[in-house]
Amino acid sequence: MKIFNLIFAFVFISFSAFSQSNGAFETAIKSQIQAMQQIDSPESAQEVSNSFLRISEAESGEWLPLYYAALTKIETAFRFDVDKDAYFDEAIDLVQKAKEVSPNNSELTALHGYALMGKVSVDPVSRGQNLSPQVMQLYGTAINQDRANPRAVVLMAQMELGMAEFFGQGPEKACGMARMADELFRKESQKVDENYLLPTWGANTAKALIENCQ
């Protein structure tokens, strides 16, 4: 009986410690996701990215902190006057580290493509021929890894539209993918609650693409 009680106590304490640790992780991630919405400068973006990296150091088995740190880098490069190539490269490095934690992850594969698409946007004339196929391959892989991932689809739609405009082609394919992404975002929104930590961004991009298709 004493042995049973000792085992029970050990299991209970271990579970309690895990629950507290998991709760602290969720709280920290939620706080920084909210902070992402308040970014108004490269400096505030750096603070948020650094906070995600500190969470990652504390929770080395989690991929989400690295994901959000990379996403913050990418969005900063697109929004502000910074060394865009450096930011996109840093994002790719973070994504690669996250892939070591969570291989074959559609969200990470799509984010890798997003960062590489950013590098194309810096100099499309000289980089497009070499990097665009790599971007499309990453998006295609992300879709195959999870066909319910709307970010993989909307990012591919965005890339398709950019290439169509660059080569003077019609937007039909891109528009079709944007509508597909919009439907996937609608389905995703039905399962999101206040405790949802996974990525949900991109719905506004899908709607903007669809508006351009009218």
TrEMBL record:
Which UniProt key words apply to this protein?
Signal
State the taxonomy lineage. Bacteria, Pseudomonadati, Bacteroidota, Cytophagia, Cytophagales
Listed name of the protein = Tetratricopeptide repeat protein
> Which organism encodes this protein?
Algoriphagus formosus
Highest taxon in the source lineage:
Bacteria
- Signal peptide, first to last residue: 1-19
